[in-house]
Amino acid sequence: xxxxxxxxxxxxxxxxxxxxxxxxxxxxxxxxxxxxxxxxxxxxxxxxxxxxxxxxxxxxxxxxxxxxxxxxxxxxxxxxxxxxxxxxxxxxxxxxxxxxxxxxxxxxxxxxxxxxxxxxxxxxxxxxxxxxxxxxxxxxxxxxxxxxxxxxxxxxxxxxxxxxxxxxxxxxxxxxxxxxxxxxxxxxxxxxxxxxxxxxxxxxxxxxxxxxxxxxxxxxxx
Length: 222
Prior knowledge:
Layout: E1 5-9, H1 11-19, H2 28-42, E2 48-52, H3 54-92, H4 104-121, E3 123-124, H5 129-141, H6 153-168, E4 176-180, H7 184-187, E5 188-189, E6 192-193, H8 195-204, E7 206-209, H9 212-217
Parallel strand pairs: 1-2, 1-4, 2-3, 4-7
Antiparallel strand pairs: 5-6
Helix pairs in contact: 1-3, 1-4, 3-4, 5-6, 6-8
């Protein structure tokens, strides 16, 4: 029998879906994983749950317009380059051009809708005062994922929320908990968690994935 799993996506990994068409690091495996995780979350079995603290939804809404604008501009640039290449090759090789049917804004908006749907499927669970206190201390001391001189309270709050939720579910038969964050600059050293975070995550039995594909492969087979 498949053990249930709680996935906690952070703001970065949700916004990655909006930026996906213009990000090389967002592989096809990631795209397939997003769709598969969404399918599993929709299932009535409850084998996979998405849970987020309020700060994830707040940061997502605060940054969404800028991310959509930047991704649209980048996709338009890519399409312009492609159109030039297509037109030039059509002339040089005497072949028919293949125009696009959808514009950059329309395509990025579809990605935005998908990211919003995933967030909409997530259960919002409130943070507690202890989460806020520990997050503030972590941020002030510059402990990962915080960095001195950088505003990291949101990342710290998500981390403390995930640690607490995993601790609360550490008993036998309870769901495993995994934090998904593509903010590897603050969470990782190379491909692995920063040592201090790894110790904390291990103590709380909290898993970590850098992207949607890793999260998909962490889901136990039925």
